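Why run this: before we spend reagent on co-expression, it is cheaper to look at a predicted model of the complex and decide which construct boundaries make sense. The entries below are exactly what would go into the expression plan.
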Amino acid sequence: MPLFRPVAFFLVLLLAAGSAAVHAQAPDDGQWTMAAKDWGNTRFSGLAQITASNVSQLALVANHPTGLKGGHEAAPIIADNTMFVVMPYPNTVFALDLTQPTLPLKWRFEPSPQASAQGIACCDVVNRGGAYADGRFFFNTLDNQTIALDAKTGKELWRTKLGEIKLGESMTMAPLVVKGKVLVGNAGGELGVRGWLTALDAATGRIAWRAYATGPDKDVLIGANFKPYYASDRGTDLGVRSWPPDAWKIGGGTSWGFVSYDPVLDLIYYGTANPGPWNPEQRPGDNKWTSGIFARRPDTGEAVWYYQLTPHDLHDYDGINENVLFDAPWQGQVRKLLAHPDRNGYVYLIDRTTGQVLSAEPYVHTTTSSGVDLQTGRLRFNPAKEPHAGVTVRSVCPGSPGGKDWQPSAYSPRTRLLYIPHQNLCQDQTAYEVSYIAGTPYVGADLKMYAGPGGNRGVFTAWDPIDARKVWEVDENFPVWSGALVTAGDVVFYGTMDGWFKALDAKTGQLLWKYKTSSGVIGQPVSYRGPDGRQYIAVLAGVGGWAGAIVSSNLDPRDGTAGAGFVNAMRDLKAATQAGGALYVFALPQGAAK
Amino acid sequence: VRSLAFALAILLASAAAFAQDALRVCADPDNLPYSHENGSGFENRIAKLVADDLKLPLQYAWLPDRRGFVRKTMGAGLCDVIIGVPAGFERVTTTIPYYRSAYVIVERADSRVTPASYDDPALKKMRVGVQLVGNDLAATPPGHALAHAGVIEHTVGFPLAGDEPSGARMIRALAHGELDAAALWGPQAGWYAMHASVPLRWRMLPVPDGLPGQRFEFSIAMGVKRGDAALRDKLNEVLRGRASDIDMILAEYGVPRLPLEAQP
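The model came back. Tokens follow.
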């Protein structure tokens, strides 16, 4: 029996995740063991008690304040009749008992990260959640530790330190567990950090491999089997040669987004962040392997393909946004696909076997580029919007947070739509202001963000990835900074920064239900089946993050350039909501689902 | 009656601002020559001088001077004055400036190649260290000047974050022969050159053309919370009265100083 159970469990996981990515029609196990629900990053729940016709009856069943004011971006993780929630710094983990109606605390764990980590985090001290696998709960701390806990008791099994706060590194992403390996990445590219993705042995915490995003091929784990689709991504040691000498050593390309996995192709997919910390004029070249997507073998980390979304990034367009995996007919043939809504303003549809871009169409107003050349894969930059020292550039769209930032989209195999929470922001690099960091004076760009065309700062878009077109959209006053969730009941959920948690008809976008939370919602909603057999929807409220730092960090609304220019676009958020995290759980009243 | 109450409120507010029981200084615990938690920086010395003049005990709120420093110290109510900020710095109310310095090039004293400007072709062959700000596509003024002149190939970047101040790392690289020159803000250049293991010298290069919006010289003032005119005025009084004593402290730390512009 003890021998049999882990194998069976592994099989179940493999089947569940594999089928979600490939067929997506297998019965849902009712759990939510990783931030994106499944290895394919679909955020699709197969549960269908809650439907478009009864969701209006959805009612609050539990509400637990967290007592913390930082932005709450984590997805609650559900496994073994337990809900695991990771807090923003100080990264406390709560385990709640789902078998009791009030969700009482089973255990809590305090990782006690170093306080100085708070000074490093670029955009609020967020954490995007943990991962459950094989009786263990894995999560990252802001001060660069990956920690494994016994999911039953909360007892620490191991912790591994992976980076250095003093060098500007931090960790905010949610791990992904694949084939007994915990995949984690770092953040902090603006500060001179060299980006990496690291695989840890899930049982011991030992580092199995680390793949850097810059430097010689041996550091990037590029070998004989590396076959990028486009010529511009081919060549020896491009991670060195596409930079001025030695600039790659501090070149950024961190991995702070979500990782996905295709068990059939046996490939993991993740994006790399923008190059840093040099001003673009000081780092001529493509700056490989920043702002792109890697496909790698989970066992060894070996790179199989790479595609650079934004060569020589000028606008802080990280490539870290999620890669959503699904199979669908493309021009008459079923293809293994990857959809990636990028910061640079385009939704990419990519053949995930080869890395070929099948289509790339803008989902937001875009002035910084004029499309993607599908022959060469190159983004066509608009030279008029290039930033130069001392030159005023207006209407840079999308602005630095991109068409979409970290907030993950969801894909329904039923509607075959990608549901994208995002922003509609442009920016001006107008005046220049004097800064003085670490006793070093300089004149920086004065970025001021503001709403793009239409005046709404946020949009929730339903996108047809095959036809590469918008099917419907809902405008929101504030940037939609929460994740999306879509269910087999054809209901799609997301939250707004002024604290409305909403349910829409996944087919039409019609608003079916909304609930006002105590603080703005920037978390990742999830759905699960409780021990009582009912379908639940859970989400963390607690405004913050880069967009919401004006509230969570109490920034001065008069200083438009605070929060790296975001405050200018968010002056009214303070009046619309308040800081403070809380867990919200919703369900239909007993019997309503029948 | 209403305007009277308003006037009274203002009076009370300013009275509260005057009635300080300590000079609370926001400072980096490890950023020489400016400040150190052991009190050995020139800003520590100037803070002590000001506190003594105001007959207030000196207190510190320590935080690394990185993004969010003003917000997390003064903004969080932990302290009332930052000893060094550029004059006119938008995030605070600034006093009159008490010194002015410039970016300089530091070289070994025995260096035979002495570039005369940031676009001197000799620089293209030299390993030049520059600080990397890495924020909002920014760079230090010499970083912009060198990039503008195409001096990129052998330029070496030093991020501000690290085990010790970037100036210390750059000067060590220079002393060890890993760099041929380092472009540094005056106070860091002067202090580290003074304490380097090999003889170094610094020189101010002429301000290059064709770099709109870039400045190589900055006047440095003290910063108080926005709108705290009462404390600013008291500090201004001390800065005027003790200008020569402050200048002596700066001289002791080797800070390259330029004449301050006439004060209005």
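The radius of gyration of chain B is 20 Å. Chain B is about 30% helix and 20% strand. Bring this page to Monday's planning discussion.
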